Amino acid sequence: MANTAKTKADLLFAESEKKAKKALIERDKARLKSAAHNAELRGLRLAKEAADKETADLAGLGKKPIKKKKEPSRKPKVY
User: Fold this and answer.
1) DSSP secondary structure letter of residue 28
2) How far apart are CA 75 and CA 72, in angstroms?
3) Looking at residue 65, what is its pLDDT?
4) What DSSP string describes 37-72?
5) Which H or E run contains 24?
6) Dihedrals φ, ψ of 20, to 5°?
7) Residues whose CB is less than 8 angstroms from the CB of residue 56 and which lie 6 or more positions away in sequence, other chains included
8) pLDDT digits (tens, 9 = 90+) for 1-45
């Protein structure tokens, strides 16, 4: 009878270990699913950006040169 308390404790410990391992596996699955989803979205975004760039290049609308702002004149104001 002295072994029953130890046996029960061992069973409870084993059960909690199984639950923890199962939770860890489920968390890893969720993380992998999220990573795959993000990779898919990134691929779609990159493909769209490449298509947009190609369309802009074909239309001659590539990056426009940046115009310099005119500097204000340094002449003193006459009142």
Assistant:
1) H
2) 9
3) 63
4) HHHHHHHHHHHHHHHHHHHHHHTT--PPPPPPPPPP
5) helix 2-58
6) -65, -40
7) 62
8) 457 988 999 999 999 999 999 999 999 999 999 999 999 999 999
Residues in the chain: 79
pLDDT at 69: 75
Q: Exposure pattern of 39-54 as b/e (b: 16+ CB <10 Å)?
A: eeeeeeeeeeeeeeee
Domain map of the chain by residue range?
A: 1-79
pTM above 0.70, yes or no: no
Backbone angles phi, psi at 78, to 5 degrees: -105, 130
- Sorted by sequence, the CB contacts under 8 Å of residue 62 that are 6+ apart come out as 56
Q: Which amino acid is at 26?
A: E
